[in-house]
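Mods, move this if it's the wrong board.
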Amino acid sequence: MNNRPSRPEPPLLPLRAFAAVGAVLVVLVLLGFLKEERREWMAHQQSFRQLEASRAVSVDERRAAETLPVELRQIVVPELGTVDRCTSCHLAVDDPTYSGTNLPFSYHPDHDVHPFERFGCTVCHAGQGRATTAEAAHGNVPFWDQPMLPLEYLEASCGRCHDPVDNPAAPRLAEGARLFEEAGCRGCHRLDGWGNQLAPDLDDSQHGEPRSPDWLVEHFLDPSKLVPESAMPRYGFTETEAKALTLFMMSRRMPPVSGYHASRRILESAESGARLFESRGCAGCHSIGGSGGDTGPSLDHVVTRRTEGWLVSHFRDPQAVSPGTVMPEYGFTDAEAHSLVLFLQRVHQQGPESLRFSVQLSAEQRGERLFKRYGCRGCHGASGEGGVPNRNSESGEQVPPLKYVKEGYTLAELKDRIRTGVPVVNKLDPNGPEPPLTMAAFGDRLTDPQLDDLVAYLLSLYPEGEELDW
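Not the wrong board. Structure tokens:
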């Protein structure tokens, strides 16, 4: 007879709870599995299989289409630090037979110019390359501040690798860069390390919240409509011009590139070479067309005396080619060196007048360039006519014109005013607000010859024969 006590039956409630939790876990696992099996990119790849099979013209092609692997595809570009999975859905970007096909199976034109394996996708299109859903990949999600660029503003990304004015494939970006300089924006904004700081510093990518393209366009059309207290005048830009400026501004907020991609900053052209010749001060030692220095040889026909390879090597490393030369090493890239050669070839073939640069200009013309470059026209007008609003300034609440400085200043006074600036503008109403527009000091930015050129230009604005109503 077994006298051992019987084991008590376990309570039913914990068992049922355990069974319920287990069932829930099984359901969640199944749901997770089904979700993984039904991801957007998988559906696109299944559809692409069917499309490929329908286009097959042989048994082998059909079999190849039906056995296309369904897998995540990605392009890794270590130099850019990008991992782009866009081709998990966009499966025909490199197949021209899909030209005209609807997204996501459309062909990407000109992909040979920017090979996918070297550039990926997001360096041009922006968005979130590692994402695996369309919404996240296009960047329309919280905490991602670089959504995919609308096609209308795609040219903005060209500015990451290329000089905005040096890319024939991005004419609207070049127009935006030109308008920025022509409108005198540097008179108030700093960009690329130079310009005034009366308004937001455009080199500071952390300044404020990133503005949408629509906001920027509206701001350029009518600044005070969006920012009532803004001192920025209404320039009368057309909508096309406002969008070009927006492209240029968007290009300045994009992350910089390095290495190979940065080396494409300058595209090889005679025009680029002319700008380099001027900006690096080559005319200080070399002459072209009888103008310039005589420390180094004349460059009018140097391409007949030296080979292209010799010139490129000389521009890259002068001492290696000409030991003992006084020419410094400028750090030219290969593209910049070739551009200088193209410039010199153009000078030899067509003469120096085919490419105008500062040393060939008169003092007044050089001064006009400085007037534009330093943003003076942003406040004083395109031709020094003044009239830009400046609230509560004693000069009629406007920035005064420069057309008549010949009457109001001696040469010494005018140079001194440019050197020291006008840090405080007298108020029309002593109890009113400070006028928002002041004049920066240019004494540490202009050399004496540049100051002479700028003064020569300002004096040339005087309307000879016009009776002044003082």
